[in-house]
Amino acid sequence: MNKLHLCLIAAMALTACTEDDETLKGSGVIEGTIMPTEKPNDVITEGIFEKLNLDYPGLEKVKAYHEAGQDYYACYELLQYYRNRSNVINPSIDLINTSYSAAEKAMADQALLHQFYVRGFSADLGADNKQGTSDDTFYKFEKKDENGQTVIDWDLQVEGVTSAEFKYQRHRWQWMEPQAKTYRVTKNEDYIKNWIETYQSWMAAYPCPNAKFDDNETDKNSNYQWKGLQTAERLLSQLNVMQYYLQSTNFTPEWLSTFLISIADHVEMIRKNYYQTPGDNIRLSQIQAVFTAGVLMPEFKNAAEWTNEASTMLDTKIGSQFLEDGVHADLDPSYHIGSVSNCLSLYYLLSLNDKTDLLPASFVSKLKNATNFLKDIIYPNYTIDNYNDTRSDRLGKSIQIKNFKKYSEIYPDDEEMKYMAYERAKGTVPSYTTKAYSAAGYYMLRSGWTENSTMMVLKNNYNPEAKWHCQPDNQTFSLYRNGRIFFPDAGCHGYEGDPLRKDFAAAVNHNTLTALSKDPDATHRKGEFLTMYTEKMNGVNVDVLSTQFEMKEGLTHRRTVFFVNKAFFVIADEAFGDGNKDKVNLNFHMITTDECPTVADADADKKTAGLHTTFTDGNNMVLRSFYAEGSTTGALEGKIDNKETEVWNNTADAISKASGKRLGMKFNVRKPINGASRLITIIKPIDGAYDANIELDAKFTDNTEETRNTFHADGVTLQVTVDGKTYNLQAKIK
């Protein structure tokens, strides 16, 4: 932090323009100073001086000129003040070592043509088929006005683009900071001219409403440009953008007055319209934006009010942002990462500006728990799956490593975090291989922490409010082994307005049990934690995890996972509840590729079904499900349904990325009216090619023939045979 502090001060010093420090005379004339030609006061945006604390140290000349009625000169001096000030440190920018990527340069250049980068959308993807890279072509936001002049079309509609995110994201100005960084390096004045032109166009189209919106407002299209993340993200980015452009001759006193009024408007609009949903990531972003503005712009009259309010709100809301286990309340890992990043940004900002006293007392400890969750949920190759609305392609290894290094800086004594930050070259290997985040409903079972390890993540979210970013897929799991994700989550595909979102989120497209192939309704998403422990069985260690949730009225799904000797998994699925006799579906989805297709296996006579992979690198997996108990007829109902489904943002491995497909299996059984459907699944890694003669078998041992279909609340007992060896397994639930 000290190094960063010194670097930023140096940056300010190197980029500053010196001014004569003579005292201001009563007439408003500064002796020995060559001033620009004075312009009329009306070029200065009205009200700017009412927004400022003119008694703030360093604004003496500004105040004197304003009181002398020379507002253009007052704004000129205000500009010099901002160009030269060194009392404020912004850790989000580096004015000395500014750099830009090829992708950022593309965003900057295309913006000159009004082709604006909108996260998640491109008119034409480049050769890498990935949005947001250097060879993408972005949509052109132009139209003809009533006079036939070409102007920016902020309401651009694109045929085939139905997601509401395209409408929201454009108003977050995601291309402006890359453009500003590019300017800082190249000194191409076209960039700042484009920034000012675009900014002015937007303000003319959407003047600040200066209003508190109705909390119960159902029309999302009303003033959405000034709601939620739109306003917060614009404010945060523009506080950075300003610093990159300040030394430009095109950054004029009159533009400064307009810009600062806009900054104040953004802050006050957020304050009037804090997001009302407790624990939502949007509210945290709003708090961060107000906090940041107050710290970075102390010259504003309301700056202290901004920081104090944000501090109080963070103190009262930090508990609703992160659950007691450290997981963000949205239950989505990508939003969790974003929220941790927001908190880290605040921590660095307040630390470097000697304002950590404004942080809540619980802030550091809650942030620690939150970073631990990320340590535990990522795969050993530093990728993450598409749980809920997570977009895994945006969270690759380089980003994860960068994040872990930040976490390690804050907690330098945490050797396990250091282990993650430095790719196992430093620190200490975490001492545990099982982990339960029971408040949120995430559970990890792993063989180790190296890249060739095996790791399962079971997701059974406690989601009584049916949060938007949380899919109805309780009891699903993902499974990683030796660099490959064998059961990747399908992802979310898109947000509001995307016709495929519902299909991708559907429970049947996850690795879980469904009733009548339907999603649980919004009132039945309360994942419960039952037990997690390790015990010696059959002479080997077995990790046991049991969770459950009520799928619908009168029907509950209990899933018990056994990780046997860190070698293979056994899953017992039980659907129980008196009076219910629905058809129950056991769904699995295994990665497949065109080059190495996954194969479905089924034997109706033996009441078994399964899947196995055929990867030529020898890293394979077999799944075999057994219809062990729960039929009133004693026969397999219907057929095994197999279908291919798409993976959105799949990060399994280089081969599967190219295909992005999964082979699905649906095992259909009828639940007895006053009993339970009970199925056993064995998931076994294979080194080499699949052998059709592999010996896999399973049965429950806690019922007799007379008591079959009986559910036992205190646990489950079963027997499996794997490679000729028999294992008796038991889960004990209190």
Helix content: 25-40%
Please indicate the count of domains.
Answer: 4
In terms of per-residue confidence, which ranges show pLDDT below 50 for 5 or more consecutive residues? 1-32, 631-640, 648-659
Spatial gap, N to C terminus: 49 Å
Question: Mean pLDDT, as a whole number?
Answer: 87
CATH class of the largest domain: Mainly Beta
CATH topology of the largest domain: Beta-galactosidase, Chain A, domain 5
Q: How many beta strands in the DSSP annotation? A: 22
The main sheet orders its strands as 9-10-11-12-19-16-15-14
Q: So what's the overall shape?
A: elongated
Beta content comes to 15-25%
Quickly describe the structure.
It contains 18 helices and 22 strands. It is α+β, with helices and mostly antiparallel strands.
Describe the structure.
This protein is α+β, with helices and mostly antiparallel strands and 734 residues long. The protein has four domains: 17-84, no CATH class; 100-244, Glycosyltransferase (Alpha/alpha barrel); 274-431, Alpha/alpha barrel (Glycosyltransferase), CATH 1.50.10.100; 435-732, Beta-galactosidase, Chain A, domain 5 (Distorted Sandwich). It is built from 18 helices and 22 strands. It has helices at residues 2-15, 48-51, 60-67, 71-84, 102-111, 164-169, 176-186, 189-205, 228-245, 253-272, 281-296, 303-321, 333-352, 363-377, 397-410, 415-421, 501-505, 654-659; strands at 142-144, 150-152, 434-437, 442-446, 454-459, 476-481, 484-485, 513-515, 528-537, 540-552, 555-564, 568-576, 583-592, 599-603, 608-612, 619-629, 641-646, 661-670, 676-687, 696-700, 715-722, 725-732. The strands form five sheets. Strands 9-10-11-12-19-16-15-14 form an eight-stranded antiparallel beta sheet, with no helix packed on it. The chain has a five-stranded antiparallel beta sheet with strand order 3-4-5-6-7, covered by helices on one side. A four-stranded antiparallel beta sheet has the order 8-13-18-17, with no helix packed on it.
